[in-house]
Design brief:
Blueprint (H helix, E strand, L loop, with lengths): L1 H10 L9 H17 L20 H4 L6 H9 L6 H18 L5 H23 L15 E2 L8 E2 L5 E5 L12 E5 H6 L2
Helix pairs in contact: 2-4, 2-6, 5-6
Length: about 190
């Protein structure tokens, strides 16, 4: 009954697992050290200096910079409340490098190798702490198809589009009574 479910849920802890700073440091500091020791880490050891590197657009593209020394300081000063916050910072560092640097650049490839080392190192640690892994999972919206004149052009995620729900279908060759149109096709319909 609903009463039993409510009673059972009230007995569950309302707070996630609490980690002490010492626990986090014990488990996560070796990960930091592995990243520091990695050959590919030299560009990630300290904050990016846009002036010294002559990349003035860096602060406009990268809104939340992250590097290994900042992660280490946050770990040593007890700023992480759980290991997932630590993982978030690592993925922020990787995402920043992938965003700013082109795939063909060495720094991009170094970042990919460092991210791979991170996942290999963090996964077993997180499993001992009751988590599944240190992977970053992202929702990727699907591409929709346009039923306009161009026949099946794509409507990219987050693009504007028009939607029509036909209560009396006239086109029997379609499996749905719902139609999506890209902006161009919609405006070209006469």
């Amino acid at each position: 009954t609903m009463g039993q479910i409510d009673a059972a849920s009230n007995q569950l802890s309302k707070h996630p697992v609490q980690f002490t700073h010492e626990d986090l440091r014990t488990h996560l500091e070796p990960i930091i050290q592995k990243m520091i020791d990695a050959e590919e880490s030299y560009a990630f050891l300290k904050p990016v200096d846009p002036v010294a590197l002559n990349i003035p657009d860096y602060p406009t593209i990268i809104k939340h910079p992250m590097d290994i020394s900042t992660m280490r300081n946050k770990l040593l000063h007890g700023e992480y409340k759980n290991p997932l916050e630590f993982c978030d910072d690592a993925w922020l560092m990787f995402e920043n490098a992938w965003l700013y640097n082109h795939r063909t650049l060495r720094i991009y490839r170094m970042c990919t190798k460092l991210a791979q080392l991170f996942v290999e190192s963090i996964d077993p640690v997180l499993k001992t702490l009751g988590y599944c892994c240190g992977h970053q999972y992202v929702y990727l919206p699907k591409v929709m198809l346009c039923y306009g004149k161009q026949k099946c052009c794509e409507i990219r995620p987050y693009s504007s589009y028009y939607y029509y729900n036909n209560p009396e279908p006239l086109r029997f060759n379609l499996s749905s009574h719902q139609y999506t149109f890209c902006t161009n096709c919609f405006h070209s319909i006469k």
